[in-house]
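Help!! Second protein's tokens look totally different from the first
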Amino acid sequence: MGRSPQTVSYQATLLALYLLGLSLRGVAQVLAVLEVPPVSFVTVWRDLQRWGQRLRRPRLQAQVVGVDTTFVRVRSVSHGILVAVALGGKTLLVQAVGAPQDYQQAFSTLRRLGPRW
């Protein structure tokens, strides 16, 4: 079976079906039901890999603007909550619930985000 020519709309359909949560085999089965040229799940995987290479971007380092902790008493038990928010307040970076000594893992995660922390 040779490579069949695939249009951009065909590949976009592959991508959309995959992003909607279908497995590689599921995407291939849906395309078979739509009576398009038969495609194997390996072809779907290869096309998604190609699209992924085009979409790759370098990871941006987050600038932590706000870190806040508070304690909440639930049924006479005190629980601590730590929240760290990124620049602009739109991205929650870390949320930890538990005792203050459990926050060390949250702080180490923040340190790995970049030198600004």
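Here's the second one for comparison:
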Amino acid sequence: MGSSVGGNRRGFMMSDEELLRTIGKDLRSFYADIICQPLPPRIKAALARIDDEQSRDISLTQPASHWCKTRPAHIS
């Protein structure tokens, strides 16, 4: 599963993992370099959770079952 970047049909595809890494890096840079403020607690917590899951090498191609209203079919 991937996401189209650029908002058009000719945009390149990147994995969800790479997209999350890019979003995290850009948010951190935006707050540090442009706003000159620390990350808000909720954004900091969300990024920490993403970093933790990526460091444990969990595939993020499907949402975690606790993030969905229904469980994926392959989970009993």
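Reply: Different proteins will give different token patterns, so don't panic. The helical segments are 16-35, 41-55.
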